[in-house]
């Protein structure tokens, strides 16, 4: 049974499913009525980046399901599981405000269901963040989870692949939407869908949606931006995207990868020095900034240049991505160097 009233939450106009069994009854009716189901997986604290995925799903599917689940398995013991922003009343408001008018018809679509499972529902064998003590079934995309974000968060993608497999099994989406902001996640999930021969979604029905940014500062919208103080957000956080943009220009003007990355590090270092001398000191440092092959996630060699990359016959762009600490907040961002459409990212 779905419910429009969940303890501690305001009455919702969107049906909320807290169990897989109750959701499946609803899903069966959608099959009977031959309605397509779009799916957006989130950890909540919804912002306009999430909204852009939901809008895309509303435009392309009869029905749209959003999940909110803060997945313990993708947080390392020292990370921010306990403090991750949980803003359910706000999230319901955001979802209720979204709609799509189907062109040439009188139909207006809005989100059809919220899947809001408990930890027990998602992990029937239990879950602890201590990997060595974990029991039960986990999904690992071997060879693709240790580079880029995985180089800093070694068990992150195992946690993501596990929970997304469960979510796909529960929701059975016709189409699903992930954000470019977490580009390695989206590409790794594509590989997982292919390797596991999934039918819901199929490979061609997993879509990557461009990163939504703050109109003024170009800061990538992110739930963790809520951790930033106003001055961190204004003065420091936009530096990551500025460094990525500077690196992009440098790469396009013919510099080698090593030069491009060194320049970007210098840019951040200069800004960090400026901010550390302010009266209200702001600490900022790059965690990493690297250029990787979108197919293998391997690091692009230091001597590589744009023209060499193209001459070598790579029929794909490269990913320039990074993570930056601003105080105690870790931000990530990326740009694609080359034709984004080749990665199936279409605005
Ligand atoms: N700025 C954005 N533009 C487009 N999609 C986004 C953006 N931010 C997040 N998403 C996508 O929304 C989905 C859910 O992400 P999630 O709930 O973790 O939000 P988040 O803002 O990425 O959170 P966090 O701050 O923890 O990284 C993912 O597919 C993610 O890539
Ligand atoms: C895909 C996801 C919802 C899995 O927990 C999460 O990693 C996220 O929000 O990007
Ligand atoms: N959007 C990625 C979720 C995480 O960092 O855990």
TrEMBL record:
Q: What class of enzyme is it?
A: ligase
Q: In which pathway does it act?
A: Cofactor biosynthesis; (R)-pantothenate biosynthesis; (R)-pantothenate from (R)-pantoate and beta-alanine: step 1/1
Give the species. Somion occarium
Query: What is the protein name stated in its UniProt record?
Result: Pantoate--beta-alanine ligase
Tell me which UniProt keywords the record has, alphabetically. ATP-binding, Ligase, Nucleotide-binding, Pantothenate biosynthesis
- Name the family: Belongs to the pantothenate synthetase family.
Q: Which reaction does it catalyse?
A: (R)-pantoate + beta-alanine + ATP = (R)-pantothenate + AMP + diphosphate + H(+)
Q: Which InterPro entries match?
A: Pantoate_ligase, Pantoate_ligase_C, Rossmann-like_a/b/a_fold
